Amino acid sequence: MEKGKYAFIIFSDPEIKSELVKAAHALHYALGLKEKGNEVIVYFEGLGEKILTLEPDYIKPVLNKAIKEGLIYGVCGYCASPPHLNIADKLRQKGYNLIGNENDHKDISEFIEKGYNVILV
């Protein structure tokens, strides 16, 4: 069977339990796809970026595994910037790749152009 390319875009707000559960499942699915030989990346966007600064206990084990496996492509620098979530410095300190900035909001076309199947969570 031919392997695929998948980009998980996580928007889920970790302060809402049902949203946090969705994000955790997305990370589990991403890891499963990678284990089966697929090319997989995870990108955090919007309120989903707060997962990386709060690191709620519920998601921490699967998030750490995704980080260890190199699945975290980056985070939206526009959403992390001071006019928005204002967590850019925290994310940089943790070593995350910020893509774009407060004047440059990237969109998912980058992933589509690179041949990824985009999955929004």
UniProtKB/TrEMBL annotation:
Query: Know the name of this protein?
Result: DsrE family protein
Q: Which domain of life is it from?
A: Archaea
Can you name the source organism?
Answer: Saccharolobus caldissimus
SUPFAM superfamilies in alphabetical order: DsrEFH-like
* Listed InterPro entries: DsrEFH-like
